[in-house]
Amino acid sequence: MSEENAIPSLCDWAGGPEALRRLARAFYAKVPADPLLGPVFAGMPAGHADRVARFIAEVLEGGPLYSGQGGSHALMISKHLGRQLTEAQRRRWVSLLLETADEAGLPDDPEFRSAFVGYLEWGSRLAVLNSRAGVSAPDPVQPMPRWNWGPPGGPYRAS
User: Fold this and answer.
1) Which of 62, 111, 121, 129 has the least C-beta neighbours within 10 A?
2) Which helix (H) or strand (E) holds 20?
3) 47: how many CB neighbours lie within 10 A of its CB?
4) InterPro entries from the xrefs (predicted)?
């Protein structure tokens, strides 16, 4: 396949890390006023939106923007431990993020949105699972997830 016909990463197709930063900043500006999400993110540290944007950009194959600054998948998982996130909060997080994606000008073509929604569903459901009582700290060496245009593969089975 020639370079000009190469399939771009989801990060590139979204508009690059800057588009994802714009999305995260707009999203987290709305969160404090949201009745379901405001309490979850009360006390959100400065720079939270930018860290989340770097994480998402890296997952969408935009390069080591999060892990290159000391972040890891285990670190992101650990932020959810013991938080007792609800399904209603998860659904609201996804819904508000997609609403904000439209406002932030992320692509709305079916292929991108399908892959993006797939990632948000997958990631937010993992966050809920990892927020339950009794979940152990994650393995610190697990790799960062990578999300692309294709399906994620088979089902997850806890060992």
Assistant:
1) 111
2) helix 16-30
3) 9
4) Globin-like_sf, Globin/Proto, Hemoglobin_trunc
The pTM for the full model equals: 0.90
149 inside domain: no
Instruction: Give me the half-sphere count of Cα atoms (radius 13 Å) on the Cβ side of residue 70.
Output: 0
Would residue 146 count as lying in a domain?
no
Could you read off the pLDDT of 119-156 as tens digits, one per residue?
999 999 999 999 999 999 999 998 999 999 986 556 55
Would you say 20 and 51 are in contact if contact means Cβ atoms under 8 Å apart? Answer: no
Roughly how many angstroms between the first and final C-alpha of the chain, as a whole number?
39
DSSP category for residue 154: S
Return the CATH number at 47.
Answer: 1.10.490.10
Number of domains in the chain: 1
Angle between helices 48-59 and 16-30 (to 10 degrees): 140
